Amino acid sequence: MGLIVKQCLRIFLVLFGISTISFFLIHLSGDPVLLMLPPEATQEEVEAFRHQMGFDRPVSEQYLNFLSQAVRGDFGESLKFHKPALHVVGERIPATIELTLMSTLISILIAIPLGIYSAVKRNSIAENVVTVLVFLGQSMPIFWTGIMLMLLFGVKLHWLPVSGRGTFLHLVMPAVTLAIWVAPTLLRIVRSSMLEVLSHDYIRTARSKGLAEAVVIYKHALKNAAIPIITVIGFQIGKLLGGAVVTETVFAWPGVGQLVVNAIYTADYPLVQACVVALALIVAVMNFTVDYMYSYLNPKIKSG
Q1: Cα(194)–Cα(221) distance, rounded to whole angstroms?
Q2: Cβ–Cβ under 8 Å, residues 35 and 41
Q3: Which fold has domain 85-303?
Q4: CATH 1.10.3720.10 residue spans of the chain
Q5: What is this structure's pTM?
């Protein structure tokens, strides 16, 4: 119970910090009214809009008003959609979560088996091949990977749709693009963690007892190497959300990433603030999930 309370307080502080930073960055970027209105707007229209949005009041008063509304989930009305900004974000969050979870699953399915294999086959040709794949995955920009997959599987082979969201096939290329981007980091952590665990005495003892190699690897070694692996997976969620901004734009995936890019281009700042806070909340919740899994894998962490 204490862990839950502590994590909820941490999530609240993170959201408070993110919302405060986003608020002041908007004011530092210039006059929000001039950014939101078209260039042909008259001076009367500018002043009327400034009063409507509350930008004619002192910044300190604007900030306190913003906080009081944000606590209630009110970030104002989207200038483009003419609906509450948080409601617009809520419509897009399922698409972003769907893409993030599928990308995480694919990266795990790629990285964990290859990381274990390269650790078990240390100093072999197979390990060298895996190392080359890691370097390739880390060196390819995410937008380039997405475009290449689109040209091959969408334009050339006509196997997969190149944009939009509808069926499972629409999800494949964006998810694979993100997975290729994050899998190399996870693979390296899996390999280094497994190498460390495989050198311990209890692994040699398990092998000397005649246990099957698969039992030694997956039952004894992998569980003890899991904590750093889960830590990286948790951190990758934030990286995936950052990469989703590019991926959703490339594949026209209707998620929060594409929404925040469009909101920045159109100077829809109530929507920008709602998007930033929503993405921060997702990252904070995933970090809480990772901390909770620590106590399951290692009861000493929970008791400590």
Answers
A1: 7
A2: no
A3: MetI-like fold (1.10.3720)
A4: 85-303
A5: 0.78
